[in-house]
Amino acid sequence: MKFQPQFGSERTTMQLAPMIDIVFLLLIFFIVLWNYARFETELDISVPAASAAEEPDRNIGEIVVNIDKEGTFIVEGKTRSEAQLLKMLLDISEAYPDQAVILRADQNTAHKHTIRVLNLCSQAKIWNISFATQPPEAAAAGAPPA
What we know:
single chain; Nucleotidyltransferase, domain 5; five-stranded mixed sheet; elongated
């Protein structure tokens, strides 16, 4: 006795086109997100050169505070006042006590603006602070700052 297949004789196949579309969309999403996090710095700020400058391993969630020539604070692409920056630093240090902060001060900015940010970090009890510099040969070649 020969039995007839109940659901037909066609075998179902896996559709590759939708899967490839989703993989490419995820790839584009992560590349854009990676570039945004990587270039979180202001391009018009020229950090000073230092002989011991090196490219550090970036940590997830570190805050980059840019200080331009006029002493304006720029974080995540937005200009912040001193009070806004203090509130942001207080909120972050409350949630993450060991939060890292990178100061990218322009080489032509007044020293007092850098001290203002250091004072705000001290008020927020942030101790993990580093300064962005670039290697001397990169500064001489006109390479973009680190």
